[in-house]
Amino acid sequence: MIPKTDLKNLTQPALEKFLQGQGKERFRATQVFKWIYQHDAGCFEEMTNISKELRRELSETACISKLEPEAVEVGSDGTRKYLFNLGDGHAVESVLIPIEGRNTVCISSQVGCAMACEFCLTGTFKLARNLTTAEIINQIMAIRHDVRESGEEIRNIVMMGMGEPLHNLDNVIPAIQIMIDGNGLQLSNRRVTVSTCGLVPEMERLGREIPNVNLAVSLNATTDKLRDQIMPVNRRYPLKVLLQACKEFPLPGRRKVTFEYVMLGGVNDTLEDAKRLLRLISDIPNKVNLIPFNEHEGCDFKAPTQAAIDAFHTYLIDRHVTVITRDSRGGDISAACGQLKGKLEKNACF
Ligand code: SAH
């Protein structure tokens, strides 16, 4: 038996092709797409403006997947951490961060990660597998279901959860296309951010295929010596190459590349680092996200002192850099940056 096609793996043009292959008219794709993404249809029966006959045919060849949270933890600041069981022994996490009614959802792109950044918890799990397009989209849709119950909407998507999104572009690109499709999740491309540790050829591909998405680059070090050590990807794409790729990334209008900088106490948190950071990024339209390191077991790095954070922040602000220092939102439920781990370690697969 041919396995059913999960329609949530298909962009609207791909759905058109799929339906055309079954001899169906083009406009059917728009109808089905809207049912899935705008009306949250979970089965073909719900698609009442489509003939019974077509609904039956579709249900024989296609299905519409869904993720249900296995657990939701709510932090004291309203941050919600979702654990999604993927049905094959794996699980991933996503986080909803409500900031004054502007809901940001941080989603995962892989189970584990192959990039092995020394300070990152996900990196210690190695890569188990890529998420499918449907699994990426379904994290958003499950959370949207909750958000809508309180009459709100999701405003921003950041691909900063588990995994390296640019290491799974074949599934991430269609997922972003569904997110920003006017018949799909209807998110503005200004509100979708892809975060990378710096896979240069894939940055170029992303820029070519989805030129308007926001780019965040996890810089985390200002010398190749340190970056080689804490982020192995730097040995392949050193700072000079990475920053050149940032410069060439096609950002429209006045948009900026976000440089994330995890501050590791006593390692990369001095004013010398701040100075070098400024020099490195000054010819790229930039903003900086300072992320105080979140300590986790089995990792020797320490959080920076508040004085080091303040001095670093002030140095950049005084030189007219837009800087946001991330507070550790969700820290009490391990939903803070770099802290997502689900129940991965309890999984037989690891
Ligand atoms: N792979 C992508 C996205 C996932 S990591 C990337 O590297 O950008 C999201 C952010 O969390 C990155 O900036 C990463 O450097 C940061 N991070 C990882 N572990 C952390 C930790 N323990 N404390 C604070 N930030 C961390």
Explain what you see.
- The protein has two domains: 59 residues, Orthogonal Bundle (DNA polymerase, domain 1); 279 residues, TIM Barrel (Alpha-Beta Barrel).
- 33% of the residues lie in helices and 20% in strands.
- It contains eleven helices and 14 strands.
- The strands form three sheets. It has a ten-stranded mixed sheet, covered by helices on one side.
- Helix 1 packs across helix 2, helix 4 packs parallel to helix 5 and helix 10 runs parallel beside helix 11.
- The radius of gyration is 21 Å and the shape is elongated.
- The two termini are 31 Å apart.
- The site of S-adenosyl-L-homocysteine has 18 residues, from strand 10 and strand 12.
